Amino acid sequence: MKTKIIDIRNLDEQSYSNSIQEAGLLLKTGEVIAFPTETVYGLGGIISSKETIDKIYFVKGRPADNPLIVHCSSPEQLFSLCKSVFPLLELLVRNFMPGPLTIVTKKSPKVADFITSGLDTIALRIPSKIVAIDLINEVGVPIAAPSANLSGKPSPTHAQHVMDDFNGKIPMILDDGDCDIGIESTVILVEENQITLLRPGIIEVSTIEHITNIPVTVSVELTESILSPGMKYRHYSPNAIVRLFYDKESYKEAIQENTLKSMLLIPENSSTSFENASNTFRYSEHNLYALFRLADEQHYSQILLFIDDSTAKKMGLMNRIKKAASK
Ligand code: TXA
Ligand code: MG
Asked: Using one digit for the tens of pLDDT, what is the confidence trace for 63-114?
């Protein structure tokens, strides 16, 4: 199969709408295609076809019991997939969607079990990326989409990352350049009067608490981002060893003593000053995954990553960094 990339940037209105139609047609016939969201690229298929959902798992190499996020284009469409629409759910949807928040809630009985891996809950989100919304509207049904990476690789933030993982395996990639956010959505479990964080992201717990006036339950594992040995899904780590440093002196020492081919990662906007060599890169949520992919491509043996105080407070970013560092 040949993978067609359509760059939707700088298209005139007619060509853009033709591209959405072409992509929509593939989805309507049950194909799986990649499309951009504001967080990362997704590997999407219609929720009305079991064969399509099976295909997503197959192409990605994803364990069958890890459920997908269903992407909707409006609150009404999202609510139609929920068992009940209670005030807290409505408040969260109205305040955070469209945007990088995924809500897990009891599913409507009309949602087929194959979409949720047999769970009685469903993960739902409304992306803010216009092309994603246009695509869902074109198809007329919600689109289930995990991140468009092979299982075990970092999520893709650029169409080329998707191409690297799926060239020849999917018919189309819609290319809208770099994703604005760069890490996956914040995932919360929402019950009548309770919110539990399942995956940290760019939307912080404090923001959710501020809007809802409800304390968000955060497990120790998530706070520490420690991967317990029993944790079910192995997460991506670059082939290089990732070493984390919280103070500048030990960081400088490690750089001086170092004999391996090392990538140096320093927080973007860090007030601490560093010398800049060709192996030094500034990281943020926006480019962390791209840098991990680059480290593998360029065969770095080691990544020395400096964490300053303001970075340490970013739960979504720290969660991804610590996962990468724990082999
Ligand atoms: O930003 C994002 O969320 C991206 C873009 C494409 O939307 N998608 C994404 O999907 O990251 P994925 O499949 O890579 O991650 C979905 C997460 C997984 O951790 C999965 O276990 C969790 O959501 N999830 C899905 N359904 C769930 C459910 N019913 N209960 C608990 N967790 C669920
Ligand atoms: Mg993923």
From this structure: 998 999 999 999 999 999 999 999 999 999 999 999 999 999 999 999 999 9
Q: What's the pLDDT score for residue 276?
A: 75
How far apart are alpha carbons 293 and 236 in whole angstroms?
10
User: Residue 164 carries which side chain, given as an amino acid letter?
Assistant: D
Nearest to 115 by CA among 36, 190, 189, 51: 51
Collapsing DSSP states into helix, strand and coil, what is residue 306?
strand
Nearest in space to 31 (alpha carbons), one of 55, 5, 60: 55
Residue-wise pLDDT tens digits, 262-299: 999 999 988 777 777 889 999 999 999 999 999 999 99
- Regarding pTM above 0.85, the answer is yes
Whole-Å CA distances, 74 to 93, 99, 125, 201, 296: 10, 12, 9, 21, 39
Q: What is the DSSP letter of 107?
A: B
The encoded tokens of residue 58 equal 């197959």
Q: Which protein residues are within 6 Å of ligand 1, measured from CB?
A: 37, 39-40, 42, 66-69, 102, 104, 116, 119, 121-123, 125, 145-147, 184-185, 187, 198-199
Task: Output the furthest CA–CA distance in the chain (Å, rounded).
Answer: 61
Q: Which H or E run contains 217?
A: strand 216-217
- 103 neighbors 92 (Cβ within 8 angstroms): yes
133 CA to centre of ligand 2 in angstroms: 20
**299 Cβ contact list (under 8 Å, min separation 6):** 239, 261
Distance in angstroms (rounded) separating the CA atoms of residues 324 and 327: 7
What number of CA atoms fall less than 13 Å from residue 23's CA on the CB side? 32
- Please give the full DSSP string across 218-267, using - where no structure is assigned: --HHHHHT---TT-SSPPP--SSEEEEESSHHHHHHHHHH--S-EEEEEE
Report how far ligand 2's centroid is from the alpha carbon of 101 (Å): 14
Q: Do residues 291 and 154 make contact, with C-beta atoms less than 8 angstroms apart?
A: no
CB 119 within 8 A of CB 25: no
Secondary structure string (H, E, C) spanning 257-285: HCCCCEEEEEECCCCCCCCCCCCEEEECC
> Amino acid identity, residue 45?
G
